[in-house]
Amino acid sequence: MKTNPAAQAYLNQIQKHNGVNGNEKADFGTMLKDALNRVNELQVRADEANRQLVTGEAEDIHSVLLAAEEARLALELTVQVRNKLLDAYQELNRMQL
């Protein structure tokens, strides 16, 4: 099965973060949980950067915008993955046995 190189790189990054080497496979639940935690961390970081900008603690707006865009993209990817998983689940439910 062909995979998107960016998606494969992201999965490799999650497995590396989980301490899984190339011969082992992380279970899906652990990978999903870690990916959601990472998205949450990006959202928290973006909120903190926005707070620093409003209070005048941020040194440049560039880092604030970068953190916000990174969090937005991560959330958008998460929503798209969720949509694909729901589509696959609905397709399985439509199959006749």
Explain what the structure shows.
The chain is mainly alpha-helical and 97 residues long. The protein is built from three helices and no strands. Helix 2 packs antiparallel against helix 3 (61-94). The longest helix is centred in the last third of the chain and has 34 residues, at 61-94. The protein is elongated and about 60 Å long. It starts with a helix and ends with a helix. The mean pLDDT is 85.
Please give the number of β-strands. Answer: 0
Which band does the percent of strand residues land in?
A: under 5%
Quaternary status of these chains?
single chain
- On the 0 to 100 scale, the average pLDDT is 85
Q: SSE order, as H and E?
A: HHH
| Secondary structural class | mainly alpha
Radius of gyration: 17 Å
Total helical elements: 3
Helix content: over 70%
User: Biggest β-sheet, characterized?
Assistant: none
Q: Topology of this structure?
A:
Elements: H1 5-17, H2 28-55, H3 61-94
Helix pairs in contact: 2-3
Brief write-up:
This protein has 97 residues and is an all-alpha fold. The chain is built from three helices and no strands.
Tags for this entry?
97 residues, mainly alpha, 77% helix, 0% strand, elongated
